[in-house]
Amino acid sequence: MALEVRTITAEEHRRFNAAQPSVSFLQTPAWGEVKSEWKAESVGWFDDLDPEGPPVGAGLVLYRQLPRLKKYLAYLPEGPNIDWLGGNVHSWLVPLAGHLKKAGAFGIRIGPPVVSRRWGADTVKRAIADERITRLSEAVPDEVQHRASALRQALRDLGWHPPSEDEGFAAGQPRFVFQLPLDGETPESLLAGMNQLWRRNIKKADKAGVVVTEGGRGDLAAFHPLYVETAERDRFTPRPLAYFETMWDALRAEDDDRIRLYLAHHEGDLVAATTWVRVGQHAWYSYGASSTAKRDVRGSNAVQWRMVRDALEAGASVYDLRGITEGLEADDPHLGLIQFKVGTGGQAVELLGEWDLPLNPLLYRAFDVYMRRR
């Protein structure tokens, strides 16, 4: 199969995505509007035998410009959406590289949405308890995707390589995530699959009178101070309110149920708030916030439980709690986050990760230095 890559309209891209079981929300045309500091382009793959037909693959490209030069890093977060495991990845990526090089790219970063390994909740809990295991990758997985290993080698053969962990380009997506499978489940079976602490906290929140409601755009103004409080407590840099308003407007314009805001109140006080994103059969926990006060009423558990049930009702096959880190040692600062997510009874998932192709090695290295200094 010979493939050509060319620019497609946002509407062509939306139609392609709508025909898939799901794609990452980072690979929707709307996400290009959210990331306003990048230049966005939708690209499609076309079969030479049917060049006027619909695209057989698609992706959102975000271009980050080098200072004072019309040269760009081309980034396809959690994409593109192509046949990654068909055994002919060169026929997809070679024309992509050619198209992006003509557009002025000095390097490309992709994020194949391909699962490499999975660890069930019980496996993760045993690994945490085993002092000999310090990282998730040291634990024996419950599932290995052997075709992902073949794809990894094929990417290396084509000149792609994973970015080093200390590179300055910090826009990357997590390689390890935590997911809760929903296929064939009911609210009762999902609750039964959670650990005792989660079930107790959900019950405690209900008994305390925590009320979870779905908010609108105007409620982002209430969400944001709680999010800033969370950022200060957990020591990360918060995004401004305008970012969430842009995100809401762009995603809702594409699909009126693409993003939701959930608010957990206790006796009139906002104790937790989250954003939920869905594309087809995949739902994500996107951003979360919780108050330091009234943590004992377990608003965070209550709001997560509502989002899980709503994802199931919306027809999602997976509820994605997004990134986790590998560290499993008792003094790891991120261990609590893993334990919180493991309590849902889901799976730790390793993706193939992000891969870079330097088209101009000199400019590629210069961009890395620039991002480090920022």
From TrEMBL:
UniProt entry tagged with the keyword Transferase: yes
Organism, scientific name: Microlunatus sagamiharensis
Family of this protein: Belongs to the FemABX family.
One GO molecular-function entry: aminoacyltransferase activity
Listed GO biological process terms: cell wall organization; peptidoglycan biosynthetic process; regulation of cell shape
Superkingdom to which the source organism belongs: Bacteria
Classification via Gene3D superfamilies: 3.40.630.30
Keywords on record: Acyltransferase, Cell shape, Cell wall biogenesis/degradation, Peptidoglycan synthesis, Transferase
Protein name as catalogued: Lipid II:glycine glycyltransferase (Peptidoglycan interpeptide bridge formation enzyme)
InterPro entries: Acyl_CoA_acyltransferase (IPR016181), FEMABX (IPR003447), PG_Glycine_Bridge_Synth (IPR050644)
UniProt key word Cell wall biogenesis/degradation: yes
